[in-house]
């Protein structure tokens, strides 16, 4: 597609339930990032994928969070047993990474607003 | 590690006022520097960038100069408009061996411009 697409745009879930958030990056972009933006806070890095390399999961806040990227394209962020503190906007971004490029801009989706009640 | 510190908000200005949003960074390696903007109800988008020392990024009347000696990348605009009301994020990226660049963001600065 023309841009990074995220779904759903809004999700309200009950505490303790599992949720899945989807990200469809720009076609051809090999790098994909997940960030979390809590109310009044900056952007918190969660995880990123680059091609076939092992993902960098260093930002995941707990083992309730996991993500996968199938076929080097679509990514799903899963939060198990959601807690109220998981309420935030979850942002996905993708970028083109190729040898010889000195820097690469990240393009963001509109985000998924997750509310845990 | 890498970190970005930017001016706390919120910032409220009158239309046509001069804007400065401070940003300083620490990084291992030689970073590229970015300003992203998030308009109300929209996603983050790149505003401007600079990839080496003394480079000046500019867009939509905004400017920022990569200052290696002071590790800073302050955002400026000579005359703000109501339409500039948004949240501004300073960010850096540093190539990590064997992997893609990873962006590190500041906490964001909310700017409100009053008519």
Tag the structure with descriptive keywords.
heterodimer, A: 117 residues, 0% helix, B: 115 residues, mainly beta, six-stranded mixed β-sheet, 12 strands
Please explain how this structure is put together.
The complex is a heterodimer of chains A (117) and B (115). Chain A has 117 residues and is mainly β. Chain A has strands at 5-7, 10-13, 19-24, 31-37, 43-50, 65-69, 75-79, 88-95, 107-108, 112-116. With 115 residues, chain B is an all-beta fold. Chain B is built from no helices and 12 strands. The radius of gyration of chain B is 14 Å and the shape is globular. The A-B interface holds A 4, 30-31, 33, 35, 41-43, 45, 48, 50-51, 53, 56, 91, 93, 95, 97, 102-111 and B 32, 34, 36, 42-46, 49, 51, 89, 93, 98-108.
Query: Helical region count of chain B?
Result: 0
Distance between the termini of chain B: 41 Å
- Rg of chain A, Å, rounded: 14 Å
Rg of chain B, rounded, reads 14 Å
**Biggest sheet of chain B, open or closed, and with what strands and sense?**
6 strands, mixed
Give the low-pLDDT segments of chain B: none
State the helical fraction of chain A: under 10%
Give the averaged pLDDT of chain B, no decimals. 91
Indicate the overall shape of chain A.
Answer: globular
Beta content of chain A comes to over 45%
Structural class of chain B: mainly beta
Taken in chain order, the helices and strands of chain B follow as EEEEEEEEEEEE
Based on helices, strands and strand pairing, what is the structural class of chain A?
mainly beta
The percentage helix of chain B is: under 10%
């Amino acid at each position: 597609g023309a841009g990074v697409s995220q779904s759903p745009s809004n999700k309200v879930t009950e505490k303790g339930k599992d949720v899945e958030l989807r990200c469809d990056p720009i076609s051809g972009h090999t790098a994909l990032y997940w960030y979390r933006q809590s109310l009044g806070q900056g952007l918190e890095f969660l995880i990123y994928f680059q091609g076939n390399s092992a993902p960098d999961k260093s930002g995941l806040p707990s083992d309730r969070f996991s993500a996968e990227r199938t076929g080097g394209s679509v990514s799903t962020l899963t939060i198990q047993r959601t807690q109220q503190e998981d309420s935030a906007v979850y942002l996905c971004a993708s970028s083109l990474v190729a040898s010889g490029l000195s820097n690469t801009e990240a393009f963001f989706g509109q985000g998924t607003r997750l509310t845990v009640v | 590690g890498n970190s970005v510190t930017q001016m706390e908000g919120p910032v409220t200005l009158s239309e046509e006022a001069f804007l400065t949003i401070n940003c300083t960074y620490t990084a291992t390696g030689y970073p590229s520097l970015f300003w992203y903007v998030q308009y109300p109800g929209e996603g983050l988008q790149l505003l401007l960038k600079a990839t080496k020392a003394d480079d000046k990024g500019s867009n939509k009347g905004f400017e920022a100069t990569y200052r290696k000696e002071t590790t800073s990348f302050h955002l400026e605009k000579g005359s703000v408009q109501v339409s500039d009301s948004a949240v501004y994020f300073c960010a850096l990226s540093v190539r990590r061996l064997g992997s893609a660049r990873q962006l590190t963001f500041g906490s964001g600065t909310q700017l409100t411009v009053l008519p």
